[in-house]
Write a structure and sequence with these properties.
9 strands, alpha+beta, 6-stranded antiparallel β-sheet, 5 helices, single chain, 434 Repressor (Amino-terminal Domain), 2 domains, 3-stranded antiparallel β-sheet
Length: about 220
């Protein structure tokens, strides 16, 4: 199976790490406070802000919640209107800098409690350690992954599943030589329709990012 190629950002678009940092500064929030809210380490968040590490979709959702926005604030994701998706029509997306591809399965409607994706994970990919509210259920469609939950390592192969509390410290990796396809379902809300306030705030943050970029001789955002 061929792995779809992730879309790359154009040079005119602020990078995700810069947008995260600009939003955090706008809220006068420290890295420690954001890490506590997102369930991530300060060291990892620092790498994300400097675009030296790419969070998983779940970790980005935690960062977004800590910043009072949603994932769509940082990245464009496909929407689903009717609740029906077709195997040969689903759009894939990825996070900037990440080789993991996502196919969105869930729709948006009042009272929705589940988020669900098919994840296409290349060999050698490792996620960050994270914890959050809610629970997660993984079902391996193809290949195999290694899941770590509160220090316990669990090898999951095609046909295996795992259900666990999101509050457990967990991470996963594809340590095989082939891709893995995983059906992920969780009760944490990852995506929602973008609100007008989100668009205005992101536009403001992009202006801040542009000013910071222009104020440095090497084009990097300084801490």
């Amino acid at each position: 199976m061929n792995i779809p190629q992730a879309d790359t950002q154009t040079s005119s678009q602020p990078r995700m790490g810069a947008l995260i940092r600009a939003r955090r500064r706008q809220l006068d929030m420290t890295l420690q406070a954001l890490g506590d809210a997102a369930g991530l380490s300060v060291g990892f968040l620092s790498q994300v802000e400097r675009d030296q590490a790419t969070p998983s979709l779940g970790a980005l959702a935690g960062i977004a919640r800590g910043l009072g926005v949603d994932v769509d604030y940082f990245i464009a994701t496909p929407s689903i209107g009717s609740g029906v998706t077709r195997a040969d029509e689903r759009a894939t997306f990825s996070l900037p800098g990440s080789s993991v591809m996502y196919e969105r399965l869930h729709a948006e409607f009042p009272g929705r409690g589940l988020s669900s994706f098919i994840m296409i994970v290349p060999p050698g990919h490792h996620s960050e350690m994270v914890h959050h509210e809610g629970d997660e259920l993984l079902y391996v469609l193809e290949g195999d992954i290694t899941q770590t939950v509160d220090g316990e390592t669990i090898r999951l192969r095609a046909g295996d599943s795992l259900h666990f509390r999101g509050s457990s410290h967990h991470s996963w990796a594809n340590e095989s030589n082939g891709i893995a396809r995983i059906l992920w379902t969780g009760t944490m809300s990852l995506l929602r329709p973008r609100q007008e306030g989100d668009r205005e705030a992101r536009a403001e943050d992009r202006d801040v990012v542009t000013e910071l970029n222009h104020s440095t001789s090497d084009g990097r955002i300084r801490t």
